[in-house]
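Example 335.
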Amino acid sequence: MITAAVVGIGDISALHLAAIDAKPDVELVGVCDVDSGRAEEAARTFGVPAFTDHGELLRRVRPQVVHVTTPHHEHVRVAMAALEAGAHVLMEKPVGHTLAEGLQLAERALAAPQKVGVAFQNRYNPTAAAMRAVLDSDALGPITGARAAVWWFRPAGYYQAAPWRGRWASAGGGVLINQAIHTLDLLVWLLGPPASVRGRAATLVLTGVIEVEDTATVVIEHTSGARSTLFATNTHHTNADVEIEITGRDGILKLAGGEAWLTGESGTHRIASDMQAGGARSYWGRGHSLLIEDFYARLDQREPFWIGLADGLVPLQILREVYAQSGILPTGSAL
Ligand SMILES: NC(=O)c1ccc[n+]([C@@H]2O[C@H](COP(=O)([O-])OP(=O)(O)OC[C@H]3O[C@@H](n4cnc5c(N)ncnc54)[C@H](O)[C@@H]3O)[C@@H](O)[C@H]2O)c1
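Predicted structure in complex with nicotinamide-adenine-dinucleotide:
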């Protein structure tokens, strides 16, 4: 039996708690939130002790795995303490609200034998896995370029419900660090690391509601020679499906409408779908439970978890570069 704790009992913690609950070989031993009401409610539901201080949770129940589901600016502090206490860490994206903090955590983690995983769960979508397999097979030939779009909806109420989400000091950014970070991760995973980045980010609609950007354009020159261009916004009227199109000499690979399509010599074929049985598709996808399952399954392997801090730092480097080029980082903000 592996023991686990969840720190930060807000929206996303529900998926982590459900995934832990569904695993017969994992025992939840504590929950923590600075809001005692939230901690106590989850504690009652799962029959475990509630804490309002993660340090006390770590001392009292000594979990083997800590899920970090707090606001961004608390990720590194909680993850550091968990590593210090000898626990493995499964953390929500982003690694930190600043790149500087993320790098500190990466340095600390190098000296620790425990594993650190980052929740880029979209890599577990059937469509993402199928696209990666096509690229691995070289069916597209040399990649010439890619485009991606995140047209999402985050109204004022989303930020008013949890004001940390709209502030530089607690979120470290807006649509890029919070929503489109998954698509940045997919672009890097599918096309390789960035050699250089250009971009602009701005607050176009939610001015006066949030400090951070609601819209951004990012151009990544990948070391492979391919260029990808991402457009991301939280100003759309609904959450549209993420789109990615990758063009190669011999074909086109496309993610649209929750399905992946390959166009080649023999025409256009659907190669994967993220739809679940019955046609439903949960908003965050099934990726979370698959990633959590996989993290636990690999705990006794020698290698680090395959989506770790190195992967988590790359999107942070990209978006910090865009923020710097846009001149929107608050004075004194660490790069
Ligand atoms: N992977 C995904 O698809 C996905 C989706 C949504 C959110 N997230 C991430 O999950 C994290 C949480 O987001 P959310 O929307 O659930 O936020 P939220 O505001 O709904 O919940 C965060 C909770 O953490 C608590 N908290 C704050 N500081 C704390 C501390 N020091 N110790 C313990 N608890 C603390 C807050 O009181 C709150 O209850 C963020 O990193 C966010 O980016 C990831």
